[in-house]
Amino acid sequence: MSAAITIARPGIRLGPRPELILPADRDGLDDYFQRLLAHRLDPELRTLRKFRKRLKAINEAEKRFLAQDLVARNCAVLELRKSLAAQQLRRTDLVQAFALIRVAVEQCLGLRLHDEQMYAGWCLLAGNFIEMNTGEGKTVTAALPAIVMGMAGVPVHVISANDYLVTRDSAELEPVYRWFGLSMGLVLAEQDETRKRQGYACDISYCTHQQVVFDYLRDSQVLRHDRHGLAASLRDLLEEQPGVPVQRGLCFAIVDEADSVLIDDARTPLILSESSAGEALSMGEAAVALAIGRSLEENRQYLLKKDIRQARLTDAGLQQVRERTAQLSGSWQFERYRQERVCQALAALHLYRRDIDYLVQQDKVELIDQATGRPTPQRRLQHGLHRLLEVKERCSVSDESNPVSSLSYQRFFARYHRLCGMSGTVQEARVELHRIYGPRVLSIPSVRPSRRRMLPLQLAASRAQQLDLLLQQVHLLRSRGRAILVGTRTVRLSDEVSAMLGAHGIEHEVLNARQDSAEARVVAAAGRCAQVTVATNMAGRGTDIKPEPAVVEAGGLHVVNLEINDSRRVDRQLYGRAARQGQPGSCQDILCLDDEVLERESSALAMRLMKMATARGPETATALVSALVRRAQNRVENRHRQQRMAVAKGQTQLQRILAVGGRGE
Amino acid sequence: MSDDTLFSEHWYRVKGLMPALAPDVRVVRHVYRLQPSYVLRRASTRTWHRVGISAYELLAQFNGRRTVEDIWEAGLASQGGEAASQSELIALLGQLHEADLLVVDARLDTEEILGRRDRLRKRESSQRFMNPLYLRLRLLDPDRLVSRIDRLIPRNCFRYLACATVLLWLFALYSLLPHWEELTAQLGENRYFNPVNVLLLALLYPALKFMHELAHALVVKRYGGEVREAGLAILILVPNPYVDASAANMFASKYQRMLVSAAGILVELSLAAVAALVWLNSTGLAQDAALSVMMIGVVSTLLFNGNPLLKFDGYYLLADWVEIPNLAARSRQYLLGALARRMGVTEASTITLSDRRERWWLIAYGLLSSAYRVALMFFIAWMISGQYYFFGALLAMYVFVTSLGLPVWRAIAFIGRQAQDIRRRLTLVIATLLCLFTSLAVALPLPKVTVADGIVWLPEQAVLRIAQDCEVTQLHVAPGSEVQTGDRLFDCIDEQWRAEALMLMADLQRLDAQRAGLLLSDPVEHQSLMFERKSIQSAYDLAADRMQKMQVKASVAGRFLVEGSTELEGRYLSANAVAGYVVPGDDRTVRLALEQEDFVWLGGNEVKVDILLDGARSTLHTFSSRITRQTPKASHQVATAALTTLGGGDLPAEALEQGVRVKDPVFDLELAWPENAERQAIGSRVRVRFDHGSATLLDRMTVFIRHLLLERGSA
């Protein structure tokens, strides 16, 4: 095991924009061994106990630095930058750097980095994913590898899930970076190209995962897809670029909420599109397709495939469509074309549901990200499907856009020379992460034992009973002066809950895709005494609800989950809002038999068992019921995982076929 | 209509391309089962690709001036329900690009092109070297040589050649028929494979195969194709020349393609016919060589080249004849798809059939060829393991893995890919079948019967054996006469014992004489003499008894026969020797020799033994019997040579000086003659049926494998 960490930075060896070039043709076994070799785990990093020796060295160095004055410390920083400029990072240098960072953080932010955080920071630097319980200080931990790499001259991308977190985290850590003389930049969606270039030119850049891929794709366009290879090298040598890219290569990324970005979003390709003059689907055509779609009968004339969101016409349906379009002209005369359009219309009518899959806001259709509960205004469904939704909801019709390049997160993040990440819930995905990206997952022990209590699951027979149970719980907890967070998966349910609470005169705040502008205010208020907050998964990841002292006294925040999510990890994120940083707190599932996931994934037998249990009351046979609920959830998770793995596997083949279109992105 | 959606998310990558077919691509229209299809071949890369008519309609518009999007939209308008979806068109473009048939306006990625070249090389080399039973080494480009030979052959000679060939075959057959028995005798077991013949085979085989390949090449050349590759293929460890006749794929006429495939077989058969004529009219080495040529020509044609079930010439001949290109792959795909659909898999691969008859071809071919292939592989492994245990075992393992392990693994992977409910159903069905099969194999008793040849033989007491060395002194009965039980037959006396007995007699007399005088005078001395006499008396009794035994008596009634041709009287017989027989009128036994694997079954539970006798009018009478004697250890000896190949039996044996020696050790058994069965002549054959009651499949497998390992291992 080498004692040092090899780094990649822009320069002569790797060119001005280094990135990992994955071989086009990877054999199963080759790939396996290569991954095994590239991501060996340093034995020292296996557990915190094994890391103690290194921690001792760091503590000693820290004592030495504390004894020094400011000038001597600055000299030490300069020395360190010099010795880190080599191609490899030596352990002795890293010990110095970590000690200095601990000193700096204590000075700037007034908090001391725990041993656990130092260990986590070292793991990140070595290119691993870490699982750290929520509220253990992930944000500050990210500063450790970021500063070390920044000092070594490696462009660092710190990638968060959304703009809110980007702004918050970067502002929190800026003084520390400044202490080390490192520049920190923000890259946000609304910035223009020059600002973005400045942001990426900094030692440490903060951005969202969408942003970094979008900029990468735009750079690809600017460079006419010659990112590497002979042409690119020649161009770099002659300094004749067709345009100036904003990024400085993919050297080192720290991904916050790694499971969300690298797993949940992995399949959705990011599409760089340009507004097109020619319309793929005119409004009139969309209206016709919807009208025909509405006139068809389910099961007789069409079948719905809910899992892949596609509709299929039966023979009777085909005949009907043929008759209805006989009078129409243009592309309606093309057999396959009209079939496709009608199928799309059927999908738009029956498979995309308002307030669950998409929102209508300001006369626009915005898709909702299922994992984060946030609206994604820049995402559009392809091939005219978005247009159909717009016409269905009678919104103003936006410009049809043509994709010019697209890239999935899966393929993008695999191109980083060193990738690391952190999350509160990543253990479940460790095999998948290792298979697709390579890094290992390490679990960081908590500083303080968790004081979160998990109340037994309750399963209601109907939606009304579920809301009733919720109301009782809310009354009980409010009387004790605790804060309550009610989590839902869909916007629709959060609206229902809000209406119910309003009807009973309970004051509450709502946080969902529709109210996303008020996010910061709602989150800040959520920790107040007897406060009720109804939120979708938006209040899941990264949201830091700080309960008031009185609330902590009364037992902390209570989280109620009303709908199980497609993945256990998302549920755990929601529970993680309660009992942060050693405070007390509790959480609870109050589910309902009508739950979409339960209905779709449970077998007839499981459904009957659950019905029998609920008939006797919501709290009977909790062990059995929760096992059945978990089972249903596992099935969704497994299916999604298989799909993702299949996509990852099919990539090589697909790229080979697409090679006819020249080099991709 | 295909199930996939019309649009593809990757469309933007190709829609602006303006592809054109490479300038040196030749397109030929083929017709398969009344369906037109187009074969594209690029001469410079020797790559080729076959497309259907709808794909060709799109492809024909690739002219370098129209974009893919234009072409697709035009296809949508003109092809109706059969129009290609975007992903289908992308796949088509990808395939053509992969086969290097396309020139695209977009700048090509150098790395990609080089990568593709490496990939093609890798695939080729893995095809060449991955199958240890079929390695190919490219040696040269024979095109010029073939052209030169081609020029020597007159144009339009095929018709005359065909007539001449058929005449030659007929003539050879006609001349050969009267000598058929002679031929089979020469080819008879253990006679053909002597060192000289093996050497001849090794020398002639490559020469014959060279002619075979040359014939392929010449026909390809004659029809305007090119032959650009020739080399050595190592097929089941035997080197064979080969030529690359893939240019024949371009021939539009199926008969031309068929002739290319058939040329090798025709040449080999013709050479065999010539060799037959030589064989008839020559002697010595020339005759042996001719026989070898006949053997190679006929056997390799029947077993390999002419056999459509293996992927040699016969296969291509058949595939071209029935107009199903890729017959093997297609039939496999069809069968697997049908199986998967039967199991409830919705997205099983389907292939469109041109007509109903094609379906039957696919089913028949798929089933027959896979069965044949596996059987042949195991047979070869069996043959080799007889000679080289280790290699044979390795080969058998390889065959086992490729023909059983891999398909099972693929099936598991396939099931793993299915949706949950289908997967569960498949798993359930397969698990049930497996359980059923296993429980049947373990628990279901199946009748176990062994049938062996037996020889009607004498009972053991009919054989007159001598206990110790002695000399025949006197015959009491003339040989050949009838005797009764207890009749004295002859005396056989050991001189030494007779002398001993006489001496003892003398001693007794001496003692009696001494004793007579002493009775009164010295009673004490008399008493001691009495004791002495007693002991001598008992010794004498013993000797007399032995003398008595020397008188050989008949233990059964029957005819007394003497062993050997010389007079019995005065002959000196050694211990255990057979002096003669008393052949009883109706007392018989049955002797037989069982091989190890059959004998194992006798050790178990009750065995019912039946003897089958031919009755009148070819009926079989069954008589129950029992085992009276069996040797505890296998030996190379048998009761009579009639049980071995030397005497017309089944056991392979060789004649040695001491007698007959069976090759594999056997167990000697004697069965009681059934009481109610009528008498049979000694030495006549009977069938013996051992009914072991029942044995499960598992029992049989264990016995079989144990025996196999022991036997092959010791060999």
Produce a short descriptive summary.
With 665 residues, chain A is an alpha/beta fold. Chain A is 47% helix and 15% strand. Chain A has three domains: 266 residues, Rossmann fold (3-Layer(aba) Sandwich); 121 residues, SecA, preprotein cross-linking domain (Pre-protein croslinking domain of SecA, Alpha-Beta Complex); 192 residues, 3-Layer(aba) Sandwich (Rossmann fold), CATH 3.40.50.300.
Note down, in words, how this protein is organized:
The complex is a heterodimer of chains A (665) and B (715). Chain A is of the alpha/beta class and 665 residues long. Chain A folds into 3 domains: 43-273 and 409-443, P-loop containing nucleotide triphosphate hydrolases (Rossmann fold), CATH 3.40.50; 279-399, SecA, preprotein cross-linking domain (Pre-protein croslinking domain of SecA, Alpha-Beta Complex); 451-642, 3-Layer(aba) Sandwich (Rossmann fold). Chain A is built from 25 helices and 23 strands. Chain A has a 7-stranded parallel β-sheet with strand order 5-6-4-7-15-3-16, with helices on both faces. In chain A, strands 17, 18, 19, 20, 21, 22 and 23 form a 7-stranded parallel β-sheet that branches. In chain A, helix 4 (91-109) crosses helix 7 (163-179) and helix 24 packs antiparallel against helix 25 (622-658). Chain A is globular. In chain B, a hairpin with a 5-residue loop joins strand 19 (608-614) and strand 20. Chain B has a 7-stranded antiparallel β-sheet with strand order 20-19-25-9-18-24-21. With 715 residues, chain B is of the alpha+beta class. Chain B contains 20 helices and 25 strands. Chain B is elongated, with a radius of gyration of 41 Å. Helices cover 50% and strands 19% of the residues of chain B. Classes of the chains: A alpha/beta (665), B alpha+beta (715). The A-B interface holds A 24-25, 229-231, 269, 310, 312, 331, 333-337, 339-340, 343, 382-383, 402-406, 635, 639, 646, 654, 656-664 and B 1, 3, 5-7, 9-10, 12-14, 17, 19, 76-77, 80-81, 83, 85, 90-91, 93-98, 102, 104, 106-112, 115-116, 118-119, 417, 420.
